[in-house]
Write a structure and sequence with these properties.
Number of strands: 5
Largest sheet: 5 strands, parallel
Strand content: 5-15%
Oligomer: single chain
Distance between the termini: 9 Å
Helix content: 40-55%
Length: 155
């Protein structure tokens, strides 16, 4: 059996009780999972702006809602960061987060989350985003949505 992703990241406990960053930066898996369960709009309702990179847009492969902004990062990750097996979309999202103040990264893969921790970038996964949405009154319960994620192939 595959290991389950962490439900709550180090950033999430403070996010549920304080103001949110104004920007969410998503990698591809977050967009795909939220789209599969019909909950992509949560990003728009929780954050002022939603950024993705051109690489993420290409990996996503579907038409984007008008409120999703595509931004090209200009830099790269520091050489001392251990990259493990970070995919191209995750890499570009990590770089964009380094370049975007007041942002939160939406990452589900463990290696990318590890790099985000190394870089001290606030991040959460799709599950953490659902907990956040519940805490902000956008979801009545998380458990039924978890069942939807399972059915959509998250685990």
């Amino acid at each position: 059996s595959r290991p389950r992703p962490a439900l709550v990241t180090s950033a999430l406990p403070t996010l549920t009780t304080t103001s949110l960053p104004s920007v969410i930066i998503s990698d591809t898996s977050g967009l795909i999972l939220l789209t599969k369960i019909g909950r992509l709009e949560l990003l728009r309702h929780l954050f002022s702006r939603c950024f993705i990179t051109p690489v993420v847009a290409a990996e996503y492969g579907l038409a984007l809602p008008e409120w999703v902004e595509v931004h090209s990062p200009v830099g790269r990750l520091p050489d001392e960061v251990v990259l493990r097996s970070v995919h191209a979309g995750e890499y570009s999202a990590l770089v964009l987060a380094l370049e975007t103040p007041d942002s939160l990264l939406l990452l589900d893969d463990a290696p990318a989350r590890h790099v985000a921790q190394q870089l001290h970038l606030p991040h959460t996964g799709t599950l953490g985003l659902l907990v956040l949405a519940k805490s902000r009154g956008l979801l009545a319960q998380v458990r039924p949505v978890l069942a939807e994620l399972r059915a959509a192939g998250m685990w």
